[in-house]
Protein 1
Amino acid sequence: MSPQASDLITLGHRIRHFRSERGLTLDQLGERVSLAGSQLSLIENGRREPKLSTLQDLATALSVDLAELLRREAPNNRAALEIELDRAQKNPLYGALGLPVVKVTKGMPLAAVESLLGLHRELSRRASEAIATPEEARRANTELRERMREQGNYMPEIEELAEERVRASGHISGALTHREVSVMADQLGFNLIYVNDLPNSTRSVTDLANGRIYLPPASIPGGHGLRSMALQAMGHRLLGHERPGSYAEFLWQRLEINYFAAACLMPREASVAFLSNAKAERELSVEDFRDTFGVTHEAAALRLTNLATSHLDMTLHFLRVNGDGALQKGYENDDLPFPVDVTGSIEGQYVCKQWSARSAFTHTNRTTEFYQYTDTPAGTYWSATQTGSTDAGEFSISVGVPFAQAKWFRGRETTQRTVSRCPDESCCRRPDADAAARWAGRAWPSARLHAHVLSPLPSGTFPGVDDSEVYTFLETHAAES
Ligand SMILES: [Zn+2]
């Protein structure tokens, strides 16, 4: 049994309700179930999950059925309001305001609870309304991320399939060669054909009638992109994909073929052997993993997230962040507090300026990874960031772990350390007060539209613009003239 945090709050309220009905104090009830009053208080506040045996004891002591105690509704109207307020105050939308959390006590007038709750409901309504981007797409993306998080970003069936195909191609060790990828295609009855005139909206086209997979020509000869694209095209066939019936299904297929390609380029057995050895030597690094298997930094970092939890006994996070600080892709199962919008979506959200994913951009030596410890409200994390650039601009790839796991990685000795208080906006999102006082009402920045279709508009004074950066920019340039 693993109830959600919100269920624990309801359960706590139900216990408190029956306790008050029976006229028992915390200590009195605690004594009957062999718990200190303070421990019982934690359970009533939804901050601790009681054991099943404790729940049974509580039901007996309160003379109610266990099923009655565990019902998922608030015991009365007042409790329902308190529970809703409690949840609203825990929402990141509220956290971003940096305001205190009000503890709702028994003595608080009903009107005060209703007033606070009314404001929270309105805040949430306005935030949802402000999002004018494809709702379905963002929801599907968020659901997919949550589903993968539950399975440690690991797909055992695809691992098996990839391992089998790679072995059948005659591959033995190291990077999967272009030749071996062609052999794999051949075994499936396909020829790989490189053409200059693929439709702009496609990455590859498979001719099922004639057994051909059309791919774009390699921009970098021998680059990993081409092998990956050919493997993805084969993945559709091997995984029995049909025409997707929804956006969610489209995304799922995309994820499966990417997974398949990665699992071929960095096969499980060889990868786990390499990574376990590096862990034993306390020399884990995405850099080495990347170079050993001849793939991009991003591909190696993502592949590490597939294998780390299931095979290396670690939790971790991954981020790809644009030069402007917007999160393009993210994965975590180590509770790193990703920036989220009101729907729970992370794509397009701005990452804290104190995180290595952004501070690495200002670092001068960009040929190697940048290491940093970051103190966050959820604890201290270590991370390694590699920056790069494409025609579309700069980006950074980060992989990190909670403090206690940093010991397995190269770069753990770094003395670089920052403090992040996000989502509290006073951490790094609010303009400097003096600058804001000088420039408010006297500036008119025009937002650059985000290339990312999923990105919602951040809610500053100017939609899509980070005011604090605009004001700093103005300060600097105004000083020059
Ligand atoms: Zn911050």
Note: Residues 131 and 456 are 6 Å apart (CA to CA).
Protein 2
Amino acid sequence: MKRREFLKLAGAVSLAGCATGAPSKARVVVIGGGFGGATAAKYIRMWDPSIDVVLIERDAGFVSCPISNLVLAGYSTMGEISHGYDGLRRRGVQVVRDNVTAIDAARKSVRLGSGGEIAYERLVVSPGIDFMFGEVAGFQEAMQAGTVLHAWKAGPQTVALRAQLEAMPDGGTYVLSVPLAPYRCPPGPYERASMVAAYFKQAKPRSKVLVLDANPDVTSKAALFKAAWKDLYPGILEFRGNSKVVGVERGAVRTEFDTIHGDVLNVVPPHRAGDIAARAGLITTNNRWCDVDWRTMESKAVKGVHVLGDATLSASGMPKSGSMANNHAKIAAAAIVEQLNGRAPQPVKIINTCYSFVSQKEAIRVSSVHEWDGNTLTPVKGSGGVSAARSEPEATYAWNWARTIWADSLT
Ligand SMILES: Cc1cc2nc3c(=O)[nH]c(=O)nc-3n(C[C@H](O)[C@H](O)[C@H](O)COP(=O)(O)OP(=O)(O)OC[C@H]3O[C@@H](n4cnc5c(N)ncnc54)[C@H](O)[C@@H]3O)c2cc1C
């Protein structure tokens, strides 16, 4: 498609053109300004400023899930995890606040909730996750009433869950349910349980954290988490595996076998690629995830569309993490720049690092390296692993990791 035709299609939407003043080579549209989309938008502009990049995000700003568990404990603030998009604007990215309601891959355009259309040469889709509410009976109604929260997308529910924990009387029970893997951030629920237990230990020592996990055991850094819980939170934190929550009712959750009462109910329902991926026919697997070519992140279902982050069908050993989404974005950005310059994309080696706090001052880590094996990305033998023990230096690294990835993705 020629530039003239793009501009015609852009129609109702006013796009001033990007900062260089030079004629643009093509327009890349990015849906979603989270870890994947923001990073892709930045890196495409950085690696080829002659490409116009339009980032479409429905929220006013970026709120980080990493560190949001610390907000629940009172060890961080919403201000610390909330960031704007001015850094991307300074790089010449056009940030449009809108909700993409449809993708027309044949016409290479996306439709906006506000009514307009924007044309693209390549499209990047990084919508994160949406929840399969039907898997937990009564969840949606209870969530709307504010009696059960997931807080698995950082934002208003993070604030609401913190308020519920603060309001809970000493001696109360906080119930956290974990869905079957795969889900966003494998160690995230266990970090959350640790943070709430740390808060209770300090502020309401007669209270309990009960983790109901649909998986048989802790799914990530299990030995390290369990050692921390035994040493730091005996009598406060209880873990139950094989306990899938299938329903919620007033003041209680239902597993397949039991009804369990709690004062604060935090249920994380199973999830899948974000709604727009489903509507655009990008989902290929189990009605949940989007399979991609790991050399370019191009969808295996829809040509010209690159899918990033949690929405993808994860390759072997690859978690759904901000660290991974940020790396996916760099694969896609490099591939798109090569493609739009008439060159063949080259496979890229990527890394993942996930830190988890187990107390205010101590953290643990898991990392892995993934390389192209001729077919997919696979973990490099002998690379990565977990920390030897929880420690204060790991907590310092964890904070530095968070600040670095926010800066790398957004400025
Ligand atoms: C409690 C918790 C702790 C975590 N801790 C860590 C950690 O320590 N380290 C780590 O690496 N990862 C962590 N994660 C995981 C990390 O947050 C996700 O893996 C990451 O956000 C995925 O990036 P993404 O780009 O796929 O999705 P997101 O970051 O969720 O971004 C998706 C964006 O797309 C937007 N969007 C969706 N649909 C549309 C549409 N139709 N139109 C416009 N905009 C749209 C959304 O508003 C959102 O801003 C944690 C997650 C949780 C829940």
Note: The mean pLDDT is 94.
